[in-house]
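[Automated response] Your request has been received and processed.

Submitted sequence:
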Amino acid sequence: MTEVAVVILNFNGRNFLQQFLPSVVAHSGDARIIVVDNASTDDSISFLEKEYSGSVQVMQLEKNHGYCGGYNHSLKLLEAEYFILLNSDIEVTPGWIAPVINAFKANPALAAAQPKVLSYHQKDFFEYAGAAGGFVDRLGYPFCRGRIFNKLEQDNGQYDDSRAIFWASGACLFIRAKDFHASGGLDEDFFAHMEEIDLCWRLKRAGRQVAYIGESKVYHLGGGTLSKSNPGKTFLNFRNGLSLLIKNMSTLSLVWKFPLRLLLDYTAAFTFLVQGSPKHAWAVIRAHGQFFGNLGADLKKRKQLADIPYPVSQQYPRLLTFDFFILGRRTFKSLRF
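Generated structure:
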């Protein structure tokens, strides 16, 4: 069995493959590299067959299953001890795999991990999707060491450590194959965005651990599928954020946290409108509409997880919105864990 499989999901990303795949091939050692193609209509396949026929395996899916479905379908067919779910717009660095795999071998309870994720365009700054490890606050708002809301920190070595975190970035997610399969994989109803938070939340509820390994480093272009300015991303983030709560928070917590989240979401929609972004405001409203339309499915999933505890380790015990917007705490180290 292959020890490490680097699995890159691709959809019409020929340009990303041309730009970033060389670093993956050059710096991944004995790892098996697989590009899973989500029914692309560009020349991705012919490019791979011409340029990487001997070094990269290509797996073609019959239709676009999205991020979650694409990985769920492909990983069922792959045998490895560890999977690395790697975005196609990431440049890896020499030795990026070994520190994380060593952490898995040293800690049998470790199920998932991520490296340091820096910006491809500003290599001394953290990147939005993962930065130096993910957390959630009391209301389930996700944030990272090195990134709170849209505030990004410069990398000055302040997060060169390794430590437990709440969630690991889906941009470069290391996970034990047995844990991925035992957890049920990614929730395909999410389609994309926040699915890795949901997966890590379920892993933690099952007594498994999630970690950040600062010795490993990658550079993420970001926005390869949906940019931060795309209302589609706003829609997915707000819809999936509510599903996270329903699936993974205790009933006692939901009694007050869920109504407050709804209020804050509508505040965000109003803010978008005032700022001249009506498409984003409408995306929040649409997100709520689809969330409530699918509420029965989320409640069914919640019931299936009912016997699993609700962990609070690595969960920020305060309200991030208050600390950030009212108290002006803009860096991870300024927060009061």
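Summary generated for your ticket: The radius of gyration is 19 Å. The first strand starts at residue 2 and ends at 10.
If you did not submit this request, please reply to this message.
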